[in-house]
Design the sequence.
């Protein structure tokens, strides 16, 4: 299998760096992709974003054959989607969950994550640095 890590992003995260910088900071997903490649230690980074739950589930299925690990920020689907949890449960490699904001400091509906039932680790509230921290951890988990 290839040494690819999927970094999957859910709805509205295409706006990262472009709206609400007080919550989400000023870096874009393109910046995140570049930063993750810098710490990838020989792994290939494949970063994607979609606003569609079905597309996100399709990518998780695809990862079964094409990726060694998944770093996922499912956006608001974190708090709603049993379907994404089911798809992740069918993936055999490590899964790390990232949230740019500290979801536990925000509205109570953001406090529960279905994805956390599957994730090996969760990072929240470190801004976009959470992605590179997760990538460093992923290098350790798959090497
Ligand atoms: O903190 C995170 O990373 C979240 O996954 C972001 C989701 C939110 O629904 C989760 O509760 C926590 C929202 C993504 C929206 O992203 C934006 C980025 C910039 C500007 C506006 C929205």
Sequence:
């Amino acid at each position: 299998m290839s040494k690819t890590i999927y970094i999957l992003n859910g709805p509205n995260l295409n706006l990262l760096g472009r709206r609400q910088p007080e919550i989400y900071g000023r870096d874009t997903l393109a910046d995140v992709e570049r930063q993750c490649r810098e710490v990838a230690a020989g792994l290939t980074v494949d970063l994607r974003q979609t606003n569609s739950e079905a597309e996100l589930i399709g990518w998780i299925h695809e990862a079964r054959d094409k990726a060694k690990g998944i770093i996922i920020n499912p956006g608001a689907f974190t708090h709603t989607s049993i379907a994404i949890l089911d798809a992740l449960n069918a993936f055999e490699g490590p899964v790390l969950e990232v949230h740019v904001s500290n979801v536990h400091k925000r509205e109570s509906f953001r406090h529960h994550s279905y994805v956390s039932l599957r994730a090996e680790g969760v990072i929240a509230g470190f801004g976009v640095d959470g992605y590179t921290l997760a990538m460093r951890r992923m290098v350790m988990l798959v090497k």
Remarks:
- Residues 4-142 form a domain with the Rossmann fold fold (CATH 3.40.50.9100).
- Residues 12-13, 15-16, 19-20, 24, 73, 75-76, 78, 99-101, 103, 110 surround CA2 (CB under 6 Å).
